[in-house]
Amino acid sequence: MRPAVLWAAFVAATIPTTAHAADKGLSGRDIYRKQCARCHGGNGQGVPKVNETPLHGTKSLAELTKVIHDTMPEKKPELCVGEDAKRVAQYIYNAFYSPQARAKGGPARIELARLTVPQYLNSVADLLTDAVQRPGRSERPGRLNVGRERGLNAEYFKTRRFRGNDRVVRRIDPRVSFDFGKKSPHKDIVKPEEFSLRWDGAVIADETGEYEFSIKTELGARLWVNDRDKPLIDQWVASQGRPKTHTATIRLLGGRAYHLRLDVFKYKDPSASISLEWKPPHKAREVIPRRHLAPQSVPETFVVSTPFPPDDRVSGYDRGVSISKEWDAAATQAAIETANAVVARIDRSGGNRGRRGRRGGRFRRGGSRQPDPAERKQRAMQYCRQLAERAFRRPLTDAQRTFFVDAHFEGSLPLESAVKRSVLLVLKSPRFLYPGLGPFDDYAVASRLALGLWDSVPDRELLDAAAKGQLKTPEQIAKQAERMLADPRAKAKLRHVFHDWLMVNEKEGITKDRKLFPDFDVQLASDLRTSLDLFLDSVVWSGNSDYRQLLLADHLFVNDRLAKFYGIEKSPTLPVAAQKPGASATWPTLPASERKLAASATSDGDGFRRVTFEPGKRAGVLTHPYLLSMFAYHNLSSPIHRGVFLTRRVLGRTLKPPPQATEFKDDSFDPHLTTREKVTLITKPAACMTCHSVINPLGFSLEHFDAVGRYREKEKDRPIDAAAVFETVSGKPVKLTGARSLAELVANSRQAHGAFVDHLFHQTVKQPINAYGPKTRDELIDRFAAGGFNIRKLLVDVMKTSITYERQKSEIQSTKSETNSNTK
């Protein structure tokens, strides 16, 4: 017998058959209308100000029956028990609760959507940067195509003049953090009272957001970031005393490299030090690490600074299905900002044959040929045509070329005004803002691939493939998707997908009780986030890219600060070794099992190294200290927060809002109770256990980890109890004994696999997965499992499957329209 059948038999045997007399003989539909509709709506859609959550979910029929028997109606569950509970559950399940019922009643559909904010920012950045590339030049506009070498080019000069014949050394410095004191920075600089230093190369941004750059020095200094003409920080006058910190903020897009240059000089100052720091999004200030610096030169990348309102997240992921006055106003202002930037870039466009100076490609004075007005006009028109073609993601028709570009250059309108009008018209056109408009041909395929994997417009290779008819078959689509995954923009996009999956951006900062955890500060929390990112990268971009290793891996990445806090110290014989017995009281001594680390370890060159724990204790991302700290109170672990996260995000199960908000007040409990006992007590009421019967077992399995994610054997001098029984959606009880058994449950759960497929699909396609046919989801899950749970292969499969479905649907609709037209 299947588990679901066994569970249904169990429910039938255990639920009393006596029904409420008033409802005896009523159908499930009648019972629902009499006892349920006033709170849940006639079709389970919810009732405003009463219960606005739709009555949709993934519970099995047996589970739903038991919930209704035990808890419904709220406050009077005795009114619907036994056969009545079975009948109404059957009705609810078949009418609107189950995914199959929802698909029949109101199938999801592919909706016309505008660009999301990340898609707008990345598209405009690539439009402007691509358009200034000279013919024949490789298309590498400010992206992370900077090779593997890390650090910055460094030039040390024996005077303050930066003259070539005064240079004493040229090398690569891994980072900029020096305190020379009164000494010379190099043996060949014989006069330590006067010298100058220059660092040049690129800075690499992982995430999109505001970056605060800082120079800490007592010397004169200038810093350029993504602009060769205007310094971001200009402090060319020495402070003549103690070091001062100078800061400035700039928006950067993730997955790209940006030009960076730092100049420093000393002249008769009493001492010399220099530190180049930044504060990335969601992290603390730090010296810019080596892994974020590259010695290669990169062009500037245009980044829109206009603020946009957030995208709609009603569906659980960012979508562009709604538009507001605020969004339209932001799009208009961003178009104006972009048009002004285009005017400043016109003379850098592809036809420039003059010599290029160091400062961004403008014609140099005194020797470089200035273009005549006719040549400059022709170049501007060509620039705007190319920009419009890239913005619309396909070649322009003659009418479009005239309307969007050529018409503005006729007559006596100043060239700059003509350029601005053309760019504004293009960027406010629905053809740019709504990529789904137009025929679903090879150019539409190129657009879908670029938006899904890069949040941007197609590159030249995609457009060339479309022009040659090489994006027609699933195999051709998969080939392009595999190529595109090598681009750093895909890595940035996938990192965002994982951040959203793990909810790491839901709140800003993690704070803990300083009396209990005096060493847990913003810097340590920032290091934990870096550790999490390194772990995710190590799995996703490994050879197998195995989703299961996200859950089962027994390693993480630590630097010295994390190693000390979590009881991992360096050893003279091993790269990473055990904590010394009797560690400082600021952190507890780890159990012997967790102090046994593998001898193998790797380093990223910035102090982070991979450490492997004895199998059986930690388990991949579920026990990463960053997540464990985030889903915890400031002084206690939180089985509830951890359980809700696991239920919704990892297992993909639905939870209804609690019947009433109950604050967890730690000081209101008996001080001798453990956290588990407190949670058990506060969630004991039947109305709570509707959801907490699922939440609590998952959260209890992580009780070996305290509020900051450190492993422990005891709480309140009592052994930790991490055992629990969890009932799957099929009704099969699974015994959990701790984090490892939890990870194995998730790794082998088809429901968890489906939740991950859903998340990846929604974040890349930006449409509901159920809109792509009733079998698509199950087929994706099956192929995910058959392919060894390879995350990168799943991403390619998602793009291939969604695009193929849309193309086939478009062809069917075209055939119907043609048939109807011929019939008429």
Explain the overall architecture:
It is a single chain. With 824 residues, the chain is α+β, with helices and mostly antiparallel strands. The protein has five domains: 103 residues, Cytochrome Bc1 Complex, Chain D, domain 2, CATH 1.10.760.10; 156 residues, no CATH class; 143 residues, Jelly Rolls; 249 residues, no CATH class; 70 residues. It is 40% helix and 12% strand. Strands 1, 2, 4, 6, 7, 9 and 12 form a seven-stranded antiparallel β-sheet that branches. Strands 3, 5, 8, 10 and 11 form a five-stranded antiparallel β-sheet that branches. It is globular. The N terminus is likely disordered.
Features of the shown structure:
single chain; 824 residues; alpha+beta; Jelly Rolls; 5 domains; 7-stranded antiparallel sheet; 5-stranded antiparallel sheet; 28 helices; globular; disordered N terminus
